[in-house]
Amino acid sequence: MEQFSRILVPVDGSHSSLKALDAAALLAKAGGAMLDILTVAYFASETDTEHLVSWLPESVTRPIGPVVHDALSRAEERVRGLVPYELHERTGIPAEEILRFAAEHAQEPIVVGGRGLGRVEGFFLGSVSQEVMERAPGTVIVVK
Questions:
Q1: Count of beta carbons in the 10 Å neighbourhood of residue 61
Q2: 8 Rama class: left (phi>0) / alpha (psi -120 to 50) / beta
Q3: Topology of 11-143 in CATH?
Q4: Predicted model pTM
Q5: pLDDT score of 64
Q6: pLDDT (tens digit, 9 = 90+) per residue, 104-143?
Q7: pLDDT tier, 6 (very low <50, low <70, confident <90, very high otherwise)
Q8: Helix, strand, or coil here: 142?
Q9: Tell me, what's the pLDDT at 43?
Q10: Rounded to 5 degrees, what are φ and ψ at 34?
């Protein structure tokens, strides 16, 4: 198996993404690699979606910022002291931002969970991991 110096693991706070983080941490520890833990806020601000989703209930449209920060905090708690890591936060479409981050840093592998939260839990049904798997030029590991 190829030796990696850095491993990208996107997290959204879902059980699946945290399982992917655990697997990535094991790989990093075994290979002496650093983890790049990335979370992507789907919208840049609370007002970006107001005109598009005003008809949806608040439980669906609540601000995503606190969720993103919570995801990074939970991820950091899981790996602190185990492996070296860096935390990264981006705003945009999750799959695109994950792929952009990987390209900008010439990074592989990408370790993703098989299903994330999305704006409505379970809505994406793994669409982010599917898109990353299909479009990434390098190694992608999907953790179920």
A1: 17
A2: beta
A3: Rossmann fold (3.40.50)
A4: 0.79
A5: 56
A6: 998 889 999 987 555 444 444 468 898 999 999 999 999 9
A7: very high
A8: strand
A9: 60
A10: -100, 145
Q: Are strands 110-113 and 140-143 parallel, antiparallel or unpaired?
A: parallel
Q: Identify any residues that bridge with 9 across adjacent strands, giving them in sequence order.
A: 37
Structure tokens at 12: 């959204």
Domain boundaries, the chain: 11-143
Burial of 64 (0-12, 13-18, 19+ CB in 10 A): buried
Strand ranges, E, within the chain: 6-10, 34-41, 85-91, 110-113, 140-143
**What token pair was written down for 139?**
């190694």
Order of all β-strands in the sheet with 6-10: 85-91, 34-41, 6-10, 110-113, 140-143
Both tokens of 115, joined, read: 């299903």
Over residues 51-107, the pLDDT tens digits come to 555 555 555 545 556 666 788 899 999 999 999 999 999 988 899 999 999 999 988
Distance, in Å, from the CA atom of 132 to the CA atom of 113, rounded to the nearest integer, reads 11
Could you count the other beta carbons within 10 Å of the beta carbon of residue 118?
A: 17
What are the start-end ranges of the E strands in 4-133?
A: 6-10, 34-41, 85-91, 110-113
